[in-house]
Prior knowledge:
Layout: H1 15-24, H2 38-48, E1 54-56, H3 65-71, H4 82-85, H5 87-95, E2 112-117, E3 126-131, H6 132-138, H7 146-160, H8 170-173, H9 176-179, E4 188-191, E5 194-197, H10 202-216, H11 229-237, E6 243-247, H12 248-259, E7 268-271, E8 291-299, H13 306-314, H14 319-327, E9 334-337, E10 340-343, H15 345-348, H16 356-363, E11 373-374, H17 376-382, H18 386-395, H19 399-405, H20 415-440, H21 446-459, H22 462-479
Parallel strand pairs: 2-11
Antiparallel strand pairs: 1-8, 2-8, 3-6, 3-7, 4-5, 9-10
Helix pairs in contact: 12-18, 20-22
Amino acid sequence: xxxxxxxxxxxxxxxLNKELERRLNVKIEYIHPTEGSAKxxxxxxxxxxxxxxxxxxxxxxxxxxxxxxxxxxxxxDLKNEIPKYAPDLAKIYEAYPDLLMDVETEEGRQFGVPFxxxxxxxxxxxxxxxxKDWLDDLGLQVPETIDEMYTVLxxxxxxxxxxxxxxxxxxxxxxxxxxxxxxxxxxxxxENGKVVYGAIDPRFxxxxxxxxxxxxxxxxxxxxxxxxxxxxxxxxxxxxxGATLGNTGSGLGKYLPLMKNKDPKFDLVAAPYLxxxxxxxxxxxxxxxxxVNNGAWNITSSCKxxxxxxxxxxxxxxxxxxxxxxxxIEGVSYKMENGYPKYTDLVTNNPNGQPIATMGQFYTRAFxxxxxxxxxxxxxxxxxxxxxxxxxxxxxxxAEQVTKANKSYRxxxxxxxxxxxxxxxxxINTYKDEMFLKWLMGKEDVDATWDKYVEQIKKLGIEDxxxxxxxxxxxxxxxxxxxxxxxxxxxxxxxx
Length: 496
């Protein structure tokens, strides 16, 4: 919503909502939390008992999540209602039953309707990118391996005067973009059917030693621990940094237009997810699946007319509703050109100077999330720069192999399991982050303290957490054995 604040304070003011109300003969009131205080306002809302008909999200701030919210009488199980009152969504589930792995709880309950990504090409939009003009000047290729990235960053430092060759935050360099080169994630993942906690794996030690060397050699930003968005932007646009991690839209899509007139030579290029050896692939390339529960619309027990509520939500999964949610109003925000819904200048080249992301939220929901199937044709136009288009190809090159490697953790924790492990995991995360920062900055030696570090994480209860997560994973696989051999599919095909 923050992106659209220049032209609307509430989704009720959007042209999309006005058109929805006109078509469906409904009136929708939207309640937006104040920026930065969503958790507090969410808790206050639940405490007051004044709960709206719909609540969007995963209930991540509710102890025990959506299952506990159901047990506490806040959410409603919609599994038996969806086939009756949301038939178009039910048809999608019938055509692509694997979606239920991310929609249903272990008990078979469905608490809302999901935000669905219609095509694999829009699953991944995050990765590393570098100054292409610098690479060209130095006669260097885009790095693919850890060693090649080191060579490039060192050249940026020594020959381009970069004071922070790779900028970002500490969490950036702990991202799977780097750790995945060692075949691990710093969190829980699956290996040979077993739950592994990456942060105490010997491979994490080797990865950490590499990052320590990078920091010592001055190719990592010395201010990783204190950077914010503004300082990172300043370093990228001020020739202090030549590489970072970011999104196709808010990264490449921000810096390239910003520097177009300031420095015509300025150019960026995406780098693939790093590996140790040429020809390998990074099994932890972060990619969304077709279901994005952060955008799920949950129906609450306050809703007095569930059939009508589901009928309203179902519209987003119809072919007509999909076009409205993705492209807005024909003749206004888009026009059909040879069967392709092309955004008008009102969206892409707004006469009042509003960016495409702002106008996109005013006329559609494709630029955010919602109860519909997101169309790849929105993304093709939003990510219109050649560098953006190329980044999607680079970052998704090994998507099929990542899907087959199937290392990401899957499992639905029960409310009592969440309460068992949450405080332990929080303590572990705090200790892990503190130690990593000490190692990175040379305050502790990795080899000298590694065994003590592993021992402390075990004392804090990681083995108990692993058992709980293993049980949840085993239950998940028992309910959804197809998760062992995941299939690729494009939901938007249902509209063809």
